[in-house]
């Protein structure tokens, strides 16, 4: 079966639950037998997204390190390394990829872009760090560099090395510029702890790509729509609070509208503190509200960002059902174009450890009109079938292994 779900710090040597750079735990699934045996990495696209690298890079890196052939089907998110490889071993190799091709050599921050530089017709690859402004080279002797040069990132920046000192130009004229306001990541995490886990929004959230229109007009329109839908959403909770709680002016409606109005400035900690202030941080209806208010069409990429908040607030089967109800409303009503992405959304939630296999399997086989109308409920569950099938097949693999033992 695929390895247990969860999220980890991108730098696994950093033992800090408030470390803001997180990624899903790399999952593996062994398929085939004999000479046809292979290791499939079902969440490689999600891991690579967290690292801001194309998923082909770490996949090819594994192949280089293991001396194994790899195959990629980007359209269907299939990333394969030939042979049977232990998940723990691949995670160690991923650490190596991160060290060599992601982390800034100067400040060890993972917030870097790969840049191809050219000097005298010789191409090099450097890491352009958004945190400290340094440009640090990668080891061009590694076999992966040949693959990267032939398959540069789609948004890769090209730079020319400055004559004389061999430094690269990052393309914006700010060579080696320091970040005056951000400070190091260690300083940031210390500040978080010292200020009751409040995030440094200037340094952290300003770099988030929310991909949403934050103009006053757009926010006003979304708030108005949210006020209208929030009351209907929380009424489905049925056993927490009364009529006073369930209106747009009740605590759940207030929380939802507050999140929308403060989307650009509020992180996971602030959202939790707002729920605490309203006295609803332990209620399952709060989870229903969070899914609708926090996420938009980039939900799959956004889930790891809010994983610590979800893990803290999803504490029972009832909470998980509310979480799934929120997904139904998010993709079935707010963003119908997301229906085909339901398997990826469920996989992302499963990976961060807020969905149990039994709960999501039961949900997937029982249409309900509790949170949405029956037609939408059927449509969302139908779309979830690839994920449910993956869970079932993973169980079958476990059973086969038990029989062999």
UniProtKB/TrEMBL annotation:
One Pfam family cited in the UniProt record for this chain: eIF-5_eIF-2B
Compositionally biased tracts (Acidic residues): 175-186
GO biological process, one term: formation of cytoplasmic translation initiation complex
Cellular component terms (Gene Ontology): cytosol
PROSITE patterns, alphabetized: W2
Highest rank taxon of the organism: Eukaryota
One of the record's GO molecular function terms: GDP-dissociation inhibitor activity
W2 domain residues: 245-401
InterPro entries: ARM-type_fold, IF2/IF5, Transl_init_fac_IF2/IF5_dom, Transl_init_fac_IF2/IF5_N, Transl_init_fac_IF2/IF5_Zn-bd, W2_domain
Keyword annotations: GTP-binding, Initiation factor, Nucleotide-binding, Protein biosynthesis
CDD domains named among the record's database cross-references: W2_eIF5 (cd11561)
Annotated stretches, region: Disordered: 149-186
Protein family according to the UniProt entry: Belongs to the eIF-2-beta/eIF-5 family.
PANTHER family in the cross-refs: EUKARYOTIC TRANSLATION INITIATION FACTOR, EUKARYOTIC TRANSLATION INITIATION FACTOR 5
Annotated protein name in UniProt: W2 domain-containing protein
Organism this protein belongs to: Plicaturopsis crispa FD-325 SS-3
Organism taxonomic ancestry: Eukaryota, Fungi, Dikarya, Basidiomycota, Agaricomycotina
């Amino acid at each position: 079966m695929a390895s247990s779900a969860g999220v980890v710090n991108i730098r696994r040597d950093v033992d800090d639950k408030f470390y803001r750079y997180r990624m899903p735990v790399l999952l593996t699934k062994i398929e085939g037998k004999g000479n046809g045996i292979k290791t499939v990495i079902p969440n490689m696209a999600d891991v690579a997204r967290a690292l801001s690298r194309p998923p082909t890079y770490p996949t090819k890196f594994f192949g280089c390190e293991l001396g194994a052939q790899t195959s990629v089907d980007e359209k269907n998110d299939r990333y394969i390394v030939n042979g049977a490889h232990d998940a723990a071993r691949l995670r160690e190799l991923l650490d190596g990829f991160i060290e060599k091709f992601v982390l800034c050599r100067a400040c060890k921050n993972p917030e870097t872009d790969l840049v191809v530089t050219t000097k005298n017709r010789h191409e090099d690859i450097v890491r352009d760090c958004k945190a400290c402004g340094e440009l640090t080279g990668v080891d061009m002797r590694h076999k992966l560099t040949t693959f990267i040069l032939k398959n540069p990132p789609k948004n890769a920046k090209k730079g020319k090395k400055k004559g004389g000192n061999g430094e690269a130009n990052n393309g914006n004229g700010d060579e080696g510029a320091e970040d005056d306001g951000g400070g190091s990541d260690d300083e940031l995490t210390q500040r978080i702890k010292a200020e009751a886990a409040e995030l440094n929004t200037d340094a952290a959230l300003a770099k988030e790509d929310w991909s949403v229109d934050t103009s006053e007009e757009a926010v006003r329109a979304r708030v108005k729509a949210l006020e209208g839908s929030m009351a209907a959403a929380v009424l489905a909770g049925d056993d927490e609070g009364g009529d006073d709680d369930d209106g747009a002016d009740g605590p759940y409606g207030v929380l939802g509208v507050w999140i929308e109005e403060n989307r650009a400035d509020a992180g996971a900690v602030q959202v939790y503190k707002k729920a605490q202030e309203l006295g609803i941080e332990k209620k399952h209806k709060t989870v229903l509200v969070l899914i609708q208010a926090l996420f938009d069409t980039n939900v799959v990429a956004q889930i790891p960002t809010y994983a610590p908040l979800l893990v803290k607030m999803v504490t029972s089967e009832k909470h998980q059902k509310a979480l799934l109800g929120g997904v139904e409303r998010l993709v079935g009503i707010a963003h119908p174009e997301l229906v085909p992405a339901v398997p990826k959304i469920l996989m992302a939630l499963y990976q961060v450890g807020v969905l149990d296999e039994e709960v999501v399997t039961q949900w997937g086989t029982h249409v309900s009109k509790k949170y949405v109308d029956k037609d939408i409920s059927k449509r969302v569950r139908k779309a979830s079938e690839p994920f449910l099938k993956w869970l079932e097949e993973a169980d079958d693999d476990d059973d086969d292994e038990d029989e062999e033992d």
